[in-house]
Amino acid sequence: MLTHITIASRELTPFEQLVLGQLCQGKSNVAIAHETAHTEKVIENTVSRSARVFGIKADEDINVRVLLALAFRTHYGDAAFDRLDAACTHHEVDGGGISLCDLHIH
């Protein structure tokens, strides 16, 4: 089944961005709720509402959280993943001797 993800139909609220930033770090709804001092239900609703912003619909074959993280990254850029502290395999050294991700150089 082909999944269609649209560009965001509206800007995400700061809270939605916060929740999706946490989601992109692999955190569960329970962990996000604890960190943001909200209930798990508020986080669930925020994730669902954010998925609708990108036109992501759940079904038995779709992992909404994965597609939502990808959509968020696409819309807000790689900065959404900066806090993962994961090594990039696309590094090049620039003229000043600084190692930069090749994907960000071009």
Protein model, in words:
There is one protein chain. The chain contains five helices and two strands; from the N terminus they run ααααββα. The chain has helices at residues 14-24, 29-36, 40-53, 64-76, 102-105; strands at residues 91-93, 99-101. Helix 1 (14-24) crosses helix 3 (40-53) and helix 1 (14-24) packs across helix 4. It has one domain (14-105): Arc Repressor Mutant, subunit A (Orthogonal Bundle), CATH 1.10.10. By secondary structure, the chain is mostly helical. Strands 1-2 form a two-stranded antiparallel sheet. 47% of the residues lie in helices and 6% in strands. The mean pLDDT is 80. A hairpin with a 5-residue loop joins strand 1 and strand 2.
Give a short synopsis of this structure.
The protein has 106 residues and is mainly α. The protein has helices at residues 14-24, 29-36, 40-53, 64-76, 102-105; strands at residues 91-93, 99-101. A hairpin with a 5-residue loop joins strand 1 and strand 2.
SSE blueprint and pairings:
Layout: H1 14-24, H2 29-36, H3 40-53, H4 64-76, E1 91-93, E2 99-101, H5 102-105
Antiparallel strand pairs: 1-2
List keywords for this structure.
106 residues, mainly alpha, Arc Repressor Mutant, subunit A, 47% helix, 6% strand
